[in-house]
């Protein structure tokens, strides 16, 4: 299992309707076929850290991660989600014993960045 946990905060100018749209897009992304589980909600960590919400998704393996990264629902969701975020932090972990899992994940992300340069631009615009 590969788990991706995102902590985030909305930009100050995002309306309540905008926040609702982002959370709905995240829920759709967390529900794609390649996701084994997913949830979206309030971040319960220290408010001083500056995060208000969290997104967590698990995928079974590297093949599922590749499908997840390129799923049309995920791609469409990123265009709604990323422009609305003021902060974003990611933690990824796995129970896969393969010592190359991290490198394989990195390669999948690099390939997506190459294929979708707007995705990279949007990600780089969000501070951690």
TrEMBL record:
Top-level taxon of the source organism: Bacteria
Pfam family, one: Dabb
Regions that span the bilayer: none
Entry protein name: Stress-response A/B barrel domain-containing protein
Residue ranges annotated for the Stress-response A/B barrel domain, each copy included: 2-93
């Amino acid at each position: 299992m590969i788990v991706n946990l995102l902590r985030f905060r909305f930009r100050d100018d995002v309306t309540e309707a905008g926040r609702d749209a982002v959370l709905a897009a995240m829920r759709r992304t967390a529900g794609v076929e390649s996701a084994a589980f997913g949830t979206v909600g309030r971040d319960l960590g220290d408010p001083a850290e500056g995060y208000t919400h969290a997104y967590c998704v698990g995928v079974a393996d590297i093949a599922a991660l590749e499908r997840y990264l390129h799923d049309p629902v995920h791609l469409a969701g990123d265009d709604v989600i990323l422009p609305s975020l003021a902060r974003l932090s990611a933690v990824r972990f796995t129970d896969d014993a393969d010592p190359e899992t991290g490198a394989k994940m990195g390669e999948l992300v690099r390939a997506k960045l190459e294929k979708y340069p707007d995705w990279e631009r949007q990600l780089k615009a969000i501070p951690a």
